[in-house]
Automatic annotation (TrEMBL):
Keywords, sorted A to Z: Membrane, Transmembrane, Transmembrane helix
Organism: Citricoccus zhacaiensis
Keyword match Glycoprotein: no
Ranges of Polar residues composition bias in the record: 10-22, 167-177
Region (Disordered): 1-55, 167-226
Membrane-traversing stretches: 75-96
Keyword Acetylation set for record: no
Protein name: Secreted protein
């Protein structure tokens, strides 16, 4: 049930009068014949309301009859004298019927304990089973320099108390594991139950509010097998504390050379992923993870350039608690340049990502982890697109076999045909696209829109369509004749009131902000030593994109912050992080903070 009140009292035209006989359900009264509803939907709603009132009235009358019927039986058992008194009371007309009980049918919140917030971190990219090692490192699919780590950042409450947090490894079904996962490793100590579920703190023991940060780095969190992991953060004072986690992968050699940074995202019952490629030389692996304590059954729907893709094995994929499954998408939808996947889960909520890498002949073509994009809608906003200058892009795409390697936008129209208008915004607002800004998408199909003509910079891509679309963008780095790397940029929803963002360790990263109509956000750097730096307010002009270096957020003093606390001051602000390294580039979305629900609506009535 939603938080909206769906039990408002019907108006006079649909509520039977208490002093008159209610009409039969589905039969309009005299007033309704003189002033008919504007639509069949309204008439149907009025009939349903009348039927509910009749049912409720009948139940109340039955209850009243039962009470009256029990009264003389009780009196008879009490003796003849009482019977005479009751009879006299009836003769005198003074017997008062019992009061009709009132039934409140409105939805009311049922208080529940606050629950831990859980997020799924993608494991490092892996080759599908059966890949063989080469004898020369340069041509080996296995990297000798690959490193992976997870960075977790969280804030205390105003009393300086940190929520308990932990990280656990999810077991792969391909390795014969039946689930349950591994024992979690504590990052911060768990708090007592009364602290987790008690009242929120407003200050420390000395009466002064205090807020601190805790930063943890976990090396090779998924073990030697490179499994996905789950980070769990407990509540404090019945509320979810600001927290974030990000995984990082980098390698300088092997087929999986490149850089990827991925946000650890909340599991859900529905995900959309776009921009996968299954053409020759490309490998896309869909990874499904179930961090919950309940089994999950997953169904997949695939969309390609020519419409929905029918493939066996897309329905009834079972995930045990704590289990992951990897699916090679090329086996389901081969030779697709821009594939989209809709993931739907029943039972436990799941995490979903797509690991993707390419080879251009024997030259590595980058590695990326594609994260879910926002659900199909009439508008999609993708901040954090990084592209080289147009001359470099032309040199790269001019090579044999690299024609589709330039920056691009992937679009899917799952329900009906759509015409989409594409806008690309930089620091000074929208920029002109050489290919124009309009593209048509067939119903149930996907399309690629090139973004080759942009100058070097960081951009936000916005799609406005006349039918729901799902979208993601792809950035590019590198030089012609050398290995290149891609970044996957997901569409995001606007930031909420407060959002904590983690920065991957030992990386150069930018916080990318965008506002369509103008806005402002307050940014507070979060340091490795646990302190929060001086806040600043960043204003954003209409249709502008600002890339702020994490190194600059500290004001030139101290080490580079491990994260930043964002608080929206004005307007709607969209955010992402772009990451750059010697091995390539990456980007990850900053989605709204998970909301901690303290109760669910429960309706009691007839």
């Amino acid at each position: 049930m939603s938080g909206q009140d769906h039990d408002q009292q019907p108006d006079a035209s649909s509520t039977p009068d208490a002093s008159s006989t209610p009409e039969a359900p589905g039969t309009p009264g005299q007033d309704s014949l003189q002033d008919p509803p504007a639509s069949r939907g309204q008439l149907k709603g009025q009939r349903a309301a009348a039927a509910r009132d009749l049912k409720r009235q009948a139940a109340l009358e039955a209850h009243q009859r039962g009470v009256v019927r029990r009264a003389p039986m009780t009196a008879g058992l009490a003796g003849a004298g009482v019977v005479v008194l009751v009879a006299a009371a009836v003769t005198a007309g003074t017997l008062v019927p019992p009061a009709t009980p009132e039934v409140d049918g409105r939805a009311a919140p049922a208080a529940l304990n606050a629950v831990p917030v859980r997020s799924v971190c993608a494991g490092p990219p892996r080759l599908p089973a059966g890949a063989e090692e080469g004898t020369d490192t340069q041509f080996s699919p296995v990297s000798t320099s690959a490193v992976s780590r997870v960075t977790s950042v969280l804030l205390s409450d105003l009393a300086g108390r940190f929520p308990g947090s932990s990280i656990s490894t999810l077991q792969s079904a391909e390795n014969g594991n039946s689930g349950e996962g591994a024992e979690p490793v504590d990052l911060t100590e768990s708090q007592p139950e009364e602290v987790q579920q008690g009242d929120p703190a407003t200050a420390g023991a000395d009466g002064v509010p205090v807020r601190e940060s805790a930063v943890d780095h976990v090396q090779s969190p998924g073990g030697e097998a490179g499994e996905a992991t789950a980070v769990t953060v407990e509540p404090i004072g019945g509320q979810a504390m600001p927290s974030d986690a990000v995984s990082l992968y980098s390698a300088t050699d092997g087929d999986l050379a490149g850089t990827d940074a991925s946000s650890c995202l909340a599991p859900a019952h529905e995900h959309w992923l776009t921009g996968m490629t299954t053409t020759v030389g490309s490998t896309s692996i869909l990874v499904l993870s179930n961090p919950s304590a309940s089994a999950s059954t997953v169904d997949l729907t695939l969309y390609g350039a020519d419409g929905p893709v029918e493939a066996p094995g897309t329905a009834g994929i079972v995930l045990a608690p704590g289990q992951t499954r990897s699916i090679v998408l090329g086996g389901m939808a081969p030779d697709e340049e821009h594939l989209a996947v809709h993931v739907r889960a029943q039972g436990g909520a799941v995490g979903a990502t797509a690991q993707q890498h390419r080879l251009f002949g024997i030259t590595p073509g980058g590695v990326e982890i594609i994260q879910p994009t926002s659900n199909p809608s009439l508008r999609a906003v993708m901040p954090g697109l990084v592209v080289p200058n147009r001359a470099v892009t032309e040199e790269i795409t001019g090579q044999d076999g690299y024609e589709q390697a330039g920056p691009a936008l992937s679009l899917a129209a799952p329900t009906s045909a759509a015409t989409a208008e594409i806008t690309v915004s930089g620091p000074d607002g929208p920029v002109e696209l050489p290919e124009g800004g309009l593209v048509d998408i067939g119903a149930g199909s996907t399309v690629r829109f090139p973004l080759d003509g942009l100058d070097h910079g960081v951009y936000t891509v916005t799609v406005s369509a006349d039918a729901p679309v799902a979208a993601s963008a792809r950035g590019l780095s590198g030089q012609a004749g050398e290995p290149i790397d891609f970044s996957s940029v997901s569409a995001v929803d606007p930031l909420g009131l407060e959002r904590l963002v983690a920065r991957p360790e030992n990386t150069t990263a930018n916080l990318v902000l965008h506002s369509a109509d103008g806005g402002a956000v307050e940014i507070t750097p979060v340091s490795e030593d646990g302190s929060l730096g001086e806040s600043r307010v960043q204003e954003l002009g209409p249709e502008s994109t600002r890339a702020l270096s994490f190194a600059d957020l500290a004001g030139g003093e101290g080490a580079v912050p491990s994260g930043a606390l964002l608080e929206t001051v004005e307007g709607q602000v969209y955010a992402a992080v772009d990451v750059r390294g010697e091995q390539g580039i990456s980007a990850y979305p900053v989605v709204p903070q998970q909301q901690q629900v303290s109760g669910v609506p429960v309706r009691v009535g007839y």
